[in-house]
Structures are given as C-alpha cells and as structure tokens.
Specification:
The strands form 2 sheets. A 6-stranded antiparallel sheet has the order 1-2-7-4-5-8. A two-stranded antiparallel sheet has the order 3-6. It contains 12 helices and 8 strands. α4 packs antiparallel against α5. The protein is 41% helix and 18% strand. The termini are far apart. It is an alpha+beta fold.
Length: 290
C-alpha cells in the first residue's frame, strides 16, 4: 500500500481535465436509438489514473442490428462484457483489457447485451500497474493476464450486479485496493497530456517540447512507456477529435479554416487524414451530421 495518505490521493489536481464524454463517437445522435450509454466520474481515490467509467446496454429486436463506430481516445479500457456472441476471440461474459486503438473502432450490436468499463487516463494504466504498455496497441487481452484469479471474481460479481452504480462500486473497490504510490514521470505526463487535450493551438511536437522544456527524445520515451503511442500521433488524434466534435455540434461553416486552425497545412491534407480514420471525407460527414 502506498505511503500517501488518503487525503493526498483523493485530492484531484487542477491539471487533470476530463476528456469529453461525447468526442470520438461518430454520429453520436444515432446511438440513443439503439443503446443506452452511461458515464460516471471515478471515485476520487482513483482520479489520478481513471478518466471515466462508462456503460452501454442494448436490447434490439430480432433481425435488428446497429454498427457503432468510435474514434477512440488514446487510453486503455478495462471492460466487463456480456452479449449475444464472443468478440475478440473470448467467450462471454468476459473481463478484458483493451489497449489503445489506433484505427476506427467498429462494433455491431445485436440481440441483448451490456458492458461496464473503466477508461483510464492516457498513461494511467501504465502508471497504475508499473508496466510498459507499448505492446498493448490494438489488442484485447483477458484481465487474468494482469490480475490472475481476482479478475474472474471481479467479472462474476459485476455481471451479477444489475445496477451501474453497484457495478461501479465493485470495480472501484477492486482498483482502490491496488493503488500504486507516487510516480513523478507520470505526473509530468499528466501535465503534458492536459495541455494537448485542452489547447487546440498545440499541433506540433515542437510546441510541446518548448512549452514543457523536455527534449523530443525524452518525450518520445515517456509516451511510449506510459501511453503506448508517440506524442505526434496523440496530437493528431486529439485534433481529429476536435474536428469531429466541432462538425457534430454544428460549429463548422468553413472546413478549410477548420483544417488550418487545427494544424493541417491545407484542406487536402486534412481531408486525407480525416477520411482515412473516419471512413468518409469531412464534407460528407458534415452533411450526414446535419
């Protein structure tokens, strides 16, 4: 157990912004027609490592399906899932650890199912476990890999609980009992990620290294150790999240101006990268969003 007092651990620092509960979900206005999504702030004792807890529940008529697509945040998720069929090669129900997803995440919902998950902060799982997460990209693994038989007990107790608040209490207790001690490098990462997330004018790695006084190679090592991706990739993902969110909320009237404001040197470059990740050009996505 850490030598930190509970009061120290419980005090959320001002530098810990939350990611949007909406950003990343493509066509967010469609989802409520097919599934119920919930978001819950973490227990204060977990605030340093956990961004959000979330849940999704669906019960679709026979023959109905819905494809949900997400531009994932650069974060690791712990999920406990049940559904009509196995995903990722695991049986159901399952307790899984999902690494950072570098592509568009696509899942088809059918029948009835539900999931409860913990979304760690970028770098949060690496700091929580002390493990290098660079090898976890685009993978889901059984939670037993990290927590042994305790993972099975957590899975079974969460599946038996029907209420999201009860499920969260079980997961919170599981994680609180395993809190790590101080980590100065992770504190540094939190400062940097907070700037990347909150300041849309940060579009280049050079901007980050200059603001935080850290050499580029040290920044690369820090990100690969804790997050699993590099700072350049992370900046681009956050700025693409900004683009999707601004389009979804109807705040964009000029896509060329949007591209320049978020760091792309021209609209064509922005369009290529947006299309590669989202699956359609920004102009078409804007029409669909409207």
């Amino acid at each position: 157990m850490s030598s930190w007092t509970n009061a120290t651990l419980a005090a959320p620092a001002a530098r810990l912004p939350r990611t949007s509960t909406r950003a990343g979900i493509l066509r967010p206005d469609e989802l409520p027609q097919y599934a119920t999504l919930g978001h819950y702030p973490p227990d204060p004792l977990l605030d340093r490592w956990v961004d959000w807890c979330w849940s999704v529940r669906w019960d679709l008529p026979a023959g109905t399906h819905y494809v949900s697509e997400v531009i994932s945040h650069p974060a690791i998720h712990l999920s406990i899932e049940s559904g009509p069929a196995p995903r990722h090669g695991f049986g159901m129900p399952a307790a899984l650890l999902h690494g950072v997803i570098t592509t568009r995440f696509r899942v088809e919902l059918s029948g009835a199912g539900r999931a409860f998950a913990v979304k760690f902060r970028p770098g949060g799982f690496g700091a929580f476990t002390g493990l290098d997460v660079a090898g976890s990209l685009d993978r889901a693994v059984d939670l037993r890999t990290y927590f042994g038989d305790d993972a099975d007990r957590l899975r079974d107790s969460v599946i038996r609980a029907d209420d999201d608040l009860d499920r969260q209490a079980l997961v919170d207790a599981f994680l609180i009992a395993r809190r790590p001690g101080p980590d100065a490098r992770y504190d540094q990462l939190l400062d940097i990620v907070g700037d990347m997330l909150g300041d849309r004018t940060l579009t280049r790695v050079e901007d980050v290294t200059g603001r935080h006084g850290i050499p580029a190679r040290s920044l690369q090592r820090l990100f690969h150790r804790y997050v699993g991706v590099g700072p350049k990739w992370m900046l681009q993902r956050y700025r693409l999240h900004d683009a999707v969110t601004l389009i979804d909320t109807g705040e964009v009237t000029d896509l060329a101006a949007l591209a320049v404001s978020l760091g792309w040197y021209d609209q064509a470059h922005f369009t290529r990268e947006f299309t590669a990740l989202v699956g359609m050009p920004p102009a078409r996505y804007a029409v669909r969003a409207r």
